[in-house]
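Input.
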Amino acid sequence: MAAEKAVPALRLLYAAEAAVCGSETAALEILESMKSTDYHTVSDTCSAIRMLLHDWNTEPPAWAVELAMAVVADDRYVTGLEKTNIRSVEPLRISYIADEHESIPYSLGDLKCRAAVPMLIERLRKSNASRGYIMARHSMGDERAIPSMLRFLESLLKDQKGRDEESNTDRLERLMSALGALKAKDAVPLLVGHLEYPEAIRALEWIGDTHVLPALRALAEKKGAIVVDGRKVT
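Output.
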């Protein structure tokens, strides 16, 4: 790490490896790089933190989880985009890079970092149910996020009502899938009311509540035909 002077990205990746080996200097190097808002530095730092999380065979130590949580919650705007070929309609935030580019929220969930649960729930709300936060909750299997997920699903279904386009379908189906994986029985009434989504049926299967059988039998008898807002869907 110390010898790498020419390529900042490599220096940070070496820092991640050295930090796993116990180097406090390397950990501080990553922490120092988190002060920058420059796009390339932000991207390289997020890559290093993702590597850092996955280089332990067990749950990462608390300080590594804290670094990851800090970058995920960093809502400062990224600078230096004019030096790249990235063209964004809206200004990018560091938290967006951490989520969409490096999947750090998903990593925290996949590695079962329980200390991150409250922050992930808060970010789930703040991000308007971004893919990374939904999948993090799905992977972690922690039931504390169920109420927030249910509120988002209900809101998205209301927003979708009467629309011809499928603008929210991906988020709807991810939320349904996550609630199914969490076996969220509180979600059953809402899911039964929206069997036009195949993911709702799969989620009900995973939840395993036999009270939904009459609704599923009725759907089968109609060969999958459902009328929603006066329109027949299958």
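Residues 192 and 212 are 7 Å apart (CA to CA).
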